[in-house]
Amino acid sequence: MDIKVLSENDIGKEETLRLNALQRQLRGDGFRNLTLLEWKKMADQLGLEMIAGFERGEIIGMSILRWHDLPGGRTATLEDVVVDLAHRGKGYGELLVKEIIKMARKTKVDFLDLTSHPSREAANKLYQKLGWEKRNTNLYRFKINR
């Protein structure tokens, strides 16, 4: 698998279809497909890297790395790690996460966070295998548009 950071110039119609398909696999059928322009805008956003894994020129996995400079130091969050259903179990998720860890080190972050739903058993096992530690915290969400 080839892994690269996507720029807005890397995203065309085919990439938009693949990224939307991956997000649907991650988020379910309720996911609203993003437009080509929305994906391009995201790829160009400061403090955010869209990372894609390619097999034979086709996007088969993706993740998002975003970092923040805060009073407590530079932190980063790993978001939306997903590998296409047809390619799971081949080690691609591990390659993607390892590459993201390398990228986070280069940006000199103090730590890298992620959340993973307990039902994603394979993903949770992978993170623990790679040295991620479970945090003792409560995660809260406030819905703005109720």
Provide the domain count. Answer: 1
* Percentage of β-strand residues: 25-35%
Q: And the CATH topology?
A: Aminopeptidase
Q: Outline the biggest β-sheet.
A: 5 strands, mixed
Average pLDDT across residues? 94
Structural class: alpha+beta
Shape: globular
The quaternary state of the protein chains shown equals: single chain
Give the low-confidence spans: none
Write down the CATH class.
Alpha Beta
Query: What gap, in angstroms, lies between the N and C termini?
Result: 41 Å
CATH superfamily: Gcn5-related N-acetyltransferase (GNAT)
| Tally of separate helices | 4
- Biggest sheet, strands in spatial order? 1-2-3-4-5
Helix content: 25-40%
Number of beta strands: 5
Element-level helix/strand string? EHHEEEHEH
**C-alpha-based Rg, rounded:** 15 Å
By CATH, the architecture is named 3-Layer(aba) Sandwich
Written description of the protein model:
- With 146 residues, the chain is α+β, with helices and mostly antiparallel strands.
- It has a single domain, classed as Aminopeptidase (3-Layer(aba) Sandwich), CATH 3.40.630.
- It is built from four helices and five strands.
- It has helices at 13-27, 36-43, 92-106, 121-129; strands spanning 2-6, 48-55, 58-70, 73-83, 111-114.
- It has a five-stranded mixed beta sheet with strand order 1-2-3-4-5.
- A hairpin with a 2-residue loop joins strand 3 (58-70) and strand 4 (73-83).
- The protein is globular.
- The N and C termini lie far apart (41 Å).
- The mean pLDDT is 94.
